[in-house]
Amino acid sequence: MRLAFLIPPLMLLAACGSEEKKTGDATEVSINAEGDGGGVKIRAGKDGGKISIGGEGAAINIDVPHFVDLDIESDFDIDGVKLYPNSKVTKVDVDANARNGADKATVKLGFTSPAAPKAAADWMAGEFAKKGVKITRSGDMLAGKDKDGDDFTISFAPDGATAKGEVVIVKG
């Protein structure tokens, strides 16, 4: 799973803020990473965001005027399986905690898909099968474990003639 690589670039891009989205449909990004010595919180969307870095005896709060156009869809995959073609990530929420020796994280991605829920779920189930990733299916929800042992679910719901959905990945 390559999603862990998103956190450092997101932090750098959020601080940069050098480009503006061409449309008003910016992906909302929320990152909450905490450890024994402090943490980092990033909240960003089409209207800007905030970066908060806190630790023992120090805190930094930065307003970010706007967020860089990210191509999260290209960067995201689970064991080589991407979202249904032309899907659009609408929200990213990362909550990580590395306190007292525990290493836990939950990643949630909201997305829209140009296909109906059944078609998108069928396509992704087929892609997981091609990669040898064992999944279970309940209606239009897929569930499994990635090669690192992290649990994931991908759910699809109707959104008119197309689908909206959520990917949830849980580590720890």
Radius of gyration: 17 Å
What is the helix tally? 3
Main β sheet profile: 10 strands, mixed
CATH class term of one domain? Alpha Beta
Arithmetic mean of pLDDT: 75
- In what order do the strands lie side by side in the largest sheet? 4-3-2-1-5-6-10-9-8-7
Question: Any idea of the CATH topology of one domain?
Answer: TATA-Binding Protein
- Extract low-pLDDT stretches: 1-23
Portion in helices: 10-25%
Shape: flat
Helix and strand sequence: HEEEEHEEHEEEE
What's the count of strands?
10
Description:
This protein has helices at 7-16, 72-75, 117-131; strands at residues 28-35, 38-45, 48-55, 58-64, 88-98, 104-113, 135-138, 141-145, 151-159, 162-171. Mean pLDDT is 75; it is low at 1-23. The chain has a 10-stranded mixed sheet, covered by helices on one side. The longest helix is centred in the last third of the chain and has 15 residues, at 117-131. With 172 residues, the chain is α+β, with helices and mostly antiparallel strands. The protein has a domain at 71-171: TATA-Binding Protein (2-Layer Sandwich). It has 3 helices and 10 strands, in the order αββββαββαββββ. It is flat. Helix content is 17%, strand content 47%. It comes from uncultured Sphingopyxis sp. This is Lipoprotein.
